[in-house]
Amino acid sequence: MAAEKGESFPDVELDFRFDIGAFFDYYPIDVTAFAKYIGINGSVLRQYVTTLRMPKKEKILKIREGIDKLSRDLGVNLMISQPAASYVK
Fold it and tell me: Which of 4, 16, 43, 49 is most buried (CB neighbours < 10 A)?
């Protein structure tokens, strides 16, 4: 092969990007709950996911910002630390 012949190859960087449908196929996130979280109508987001409707650039940006927000929220340990009954007084 090329390595055996002493040939070298340049470093390659890959940049993987999901379309909206692939994102929700890959990650187990409820589309309706996510839509509510970012302030988009759940029915409309489901149509984007299933490609029944194509989002404008502004909506794609809002979805990407929502994904970034969710990532930050989960990254700062906003996880449940107590059972629900302990919050009730």
Answer: 49
Judge contact between 26 and 18, C-beta under 8 A: yes
Vertex 21, ends 71 and 69: CA angle to 5°?
15
40 contact partners, CB below 8 Å, separation of at least 6: 59, 62, 63, 66
Dist CA 16 CA 54 (whole Å): 21
Question: Residue 20 carries which side chain, given as an amino acid letter?
Answer: I
Instruction: State residue 29 phi and psi, 5-degree precision.
Output: -110, 130
Long-range contacts of 24-31 (CB under 8 A, 24+ apart): 24/49, 29/70
For residue range 10-64, what is the model confidence (pLDDT) as tens digits? 888 888 788 899 899 988 999 999 999 999 999 999 999 999 999 999 999 999 9
Distance CA 58, CA 61 (A): 5
